[in-house]
Write a structure and sequence with these properties.
alpha/beta, YaeB-like fold, Rossmann fold, 4 domains, 26 helices, 16% strand, globular, disordered C terminus
Length: 752
């Protein structure tokens, strides 16, 4: 049977009927490429004798390239579906080529028609000399750097060097044919060194077999990391259908960036930390790493975990999308990938520990615990425990937020069980200073908190995590190996007890822990320095900077909410926003100001009606994000009343055929083609209630959470982003952000 190689391309048909026809065609091609009904025709007068076209329907044609190995086995490179005239022109002028400078298989044009690729207004001219030094001049790049080191065609290199602005380079990058060219051009625009670009993209001259044919050389090069950015062999019809139907949303499974491939397959001497902004592919790396570890050792015990059960379910769904045959474990210690929320892991250890769990609780709580009737959140009992302490402590210190933070970040991880120990313990990073008298009062609250929990036979999830970590320290040898590898997503939101549990699950060894985190997306809790939890990552940390999800315009909008914040990472240092960039372009985010919430709702309804009225937009990829649950419900009701099917969801979920409304917090870990941020108004974002309830010393941290929340919400949008507000805009929206006044404009004209 012939092999099929899919090509990652832009401007592919979005109509579902056409996609189905493409799948039917390729399915038949893979079964028998000699079938007459396929109407595969060799191109006359083409630059590549391997070029073919085939009829998909009366309007659409497939562009194909036939590669043959020494056994005459056929491999068909599917280079996209195009309308008839475009397909013919592409097949005549594009050839499959092995770049002998960088080893990438690519599509190159030997004779470029004037209408292809589409040149956007503002792009640098290709013939006339620039009137001033181009944008790249400041980085001292030479023509030889681009041509002889990176492998650009000379004509493309000239255009890059002549481009006057970064924006022109990004526009040019988006028009380039090959994935490696696009990413390399974007990196050049940011001033990355030539060696760094070569290293990130794994660009290196191929080792050529003199006896191999050109086709065989290309077939071998298709297995390189840089080629896999754009080309992939399809194993079966199920995978083929997914690639075609999901389009851009399937790219993470199919076309892995060389840097992502490196980290997913890397061999590390101990815990490894991968940081990066929203959309840079950290979760993608984790999923591919889980698969890699299982392929390397089918009996490996891999734990894949994250902050919540809902996000863990999404990880499980996506891992099975990546590899439906991967071995899924159902319990700790079983071979396979066990996918659980971190609190579920604590519960699993507690169950395995049996009666000795209660004995171990004495180490953490100062007393043995018997039966535990319920597990609760960390914040739920602090208010009642603090009653009667208002005379001795400032009001802000008796808030649920402060007391929970003190318990999670100081008392539990240090396993403090007495007043004297609390007097002596250090409190790094807590912000609010407590003298001996205040500590005495706080400890009295902690004692009442624990006494109340004992009377109801309850523990918090954080207490379960800390006791579980202690139990593993004591009884780990008897329990046996529970995990060989622990992979952690959304690490920035975990607390010290949770980190200590994860550290205890896998014994220190090579590749024991792989951590994906982004300090800019911390929307819960306080920063945690991992070295204080026994996790040494110094020297084994890397940062992803290229955004694969969000357009450059949306990314720039999202990042602006972070500009005045100081974000602490897992090593205790400051996380920078400099260097984040996107290879994708799109519409500029639009902000709509209104006099009332009703006007906002009307604007949202009209905008979404225009979006879902476009046949190329799936309603299930459109979402409205609100700061609170009741506002998200209000949007849902308004949409339904407007005749637009919509669902309100309270947890991260998979596919849907309706517009979704949800909170900004719930949207964490999800992505959509088009997003509306609803009611980003003064007093709502940032939340006045959150700021007022925090201690003065902790309001800075609360503001960081609010900045991060807006950043997370804005970065959920792949393509289009709109923002609404009423009264006055949020101070986190920059004063120079253009705003459309919906009180004077027709709502139906508010399109993005």
């Amino acid at each position: 049977m012939p092999n099929i190689v899919m090509t990652k391309l832009k401007n592919q048909p979005k109509d579902k009927t056409v996609r189905l026809k493409i799948f039917d065609f390729l399915e038949k091609l893979a079964e028998d490429d000699s079938t007459y009904g396929l109407r595969v025709k060799k191109m006359n007068q083409s630059v590549d004798p391997r070029a073919r076209t085939a009829r998909i329907d009366k309007s659409w044609r497939a562009v194909l390239y036939l590669l043959e190995d020494k056994y005459q086995e056929h491999t068909w490179v599917f280079a996209g579906a195009w309308e008839h005239d475009v397909a013919i022109e592409r097949a005549r002028t594009l050839k499959v080529n092995l770049n002998e400078i960088n080893g990438a298989v690519e599509l190159i044009a030997e004779t470029m028609p004037p209408t292809y690729p589409p040149f956007v207004a503002g792009a640098a001219p290709t013939t006339s000399a620039p009137t001033a030094p181009g944008h790249l001049h400041q980085f001292n790049y030479s023509l030889s750097d681009l041509v002889d080191e990176l492998g650009f065609a000379r004509s493309v290199a000239h255009r890059l060097l002549d481009a006057a602005t970064e924006d022109e380079i990004l526009t040019l990058a988006q028009s380039l044919e090959n994935a490696w060219e696009q990413d390399a051009a974007v990196s050049l625009a940011t001033g990355a060194s030539i060696e760094a670009i070569k290293d990130e993209l794994r660009l290196q001259a191929p080792v050529l077999d003199a006896d191999a044919s050109e086709d065989e050389k290309i077939l071998r090069a298709l297995e390189s990391d840089v080629s896999k950015m754009q080309f992939t062999f399809v194993d079966d019809n199920v995978e083929l259908r997914k690639i075609i139907e999901e389009g851009d949303f399937a790219a993470w499974r199919v076309f892995l960036h060389p840097e992502q491939a490196r980290y997913s397959k890397g061999d590390y001497a101990g815990p490894f930390r991968l940081s990066g902004g929203a959309g840079t592919g950290k979760t993608v790396v984790l999923l591919h790493r889980a698969r890699h570890l299982m392929m390397h050792n089918p009996n490996a015990r891999v734990v894949l975990t994250t902050y919540t059960r809902a996000l863990a379910e999404n990880l499980k769904r996506d891992l099975l999308e990546l590899d439906p045959e991967i071995r899924i474990a159902s319990a700790l210690g079983e071979p396979g990938v066990l996918i659980r929320g971190v609190d579920q892991l604590g519960a699993a250890v507690r169950q395995k520990a049996g009666q000795s769990f209660g004995q171990t609780a004495g180490i953490i709580l100062g007393e043995v615990r018997g039966r535990v009737g319920q597990i609760t959140g960390s914040r739920e009992r602090w208010s009642s425990a603090a009653v009667g302490s208002t005379d001795d402590l400032p009001a802000a210190v008796t808030t649920d937020t402060f007391l929970e933070g003190e318990y999670l970040h100081v008392v539990l991880p240090a396993r403090v069980t007495s007043r004297e120990e609390y007097f002596a313990i250090r409190r790094p990073g807590r912000g609010v200073a407590l003298d001996r008298k205040k500590r005495d009062s706080v400890w009295s609250i902690i004692e009442r908190y624990r006494e109340n929990a004992r009377s109801t036979s309850s523990l918090s999830y954080a207490e379960v995590a800390e006791i579980s970590a202690a139990w593993l320290d004591l009884y780990g040898e008897e329990a046996g190996v529970l995990a060989d590898h622990v992979l952690i997503d959304e690490g920035q939101d975990l607390s010290p007890p949770q980190w200590k549990l994860l550290r205890a699950l896998a014994r220190p060894a090579r590749n024991d822990m792989f951590i994906a985190e982004d300090a800019h997306q911390r929307i819960y809790g306080h920063p945690v320095v991992l070295s204080r939890c026994g996790i040494a990552i110094v020297g084994r940390s890397r940062r992803l900077t290229l955004n694969y999800r969000t357009t450059a315009e949306n990314l720039a909008f999202a990042i602006r909410s972070l500009e005045e914040g100081n974000f602490i990472n897992a090593e205790g240092g400051t996380t920078e926003i400099a260097g984040y960039h996107s290879a994708r372009r799109g519409p500029t985010p639009v902000v709509f100001g209104a006099r009332s919430e009703q006007e906002q709702l009307a604007c949202v309804c009209d905008l979404i009606e225009s979006w879902v009225g476009d046949e190329t937009v799936d309603a299930g990829t459109v979402a409205v994000l609100a700061r609170t649950n009741d506002r998200a419900l209000a949007v849902r009701d308004a949409l339904v009343g407007h005749g637009i099917p919509a669902n309100h969801v309270k947890s991260a979920q998979g596919t849907s055929d309706r517009v979704l409304t949800l909170t900004m917090h719930t949207a964490k870990g999800m992505e959509f083609s088009r997003v509306v941020l609803f009611n980003v108004s003064e007093g709502v974002v940032p939340s006045t209630w959150m700021l007022d309830s925090a201690a003065p010393e902790e309001r800075g941290e609360v503001m960081l959470h609010e900045r991060s929340l807006l950043y997370v919400a804005a970065s959920r949008a792949r393509d289009a982003l709109a923002v609404t507000w009423s009264g006055s805009p949020s101070p986190l929206l920059h004063a120079d952000t253009p705003t459309h006044d919906v009180t004077t404009e027709e709502h139906s004209g508010a399109t993005v």
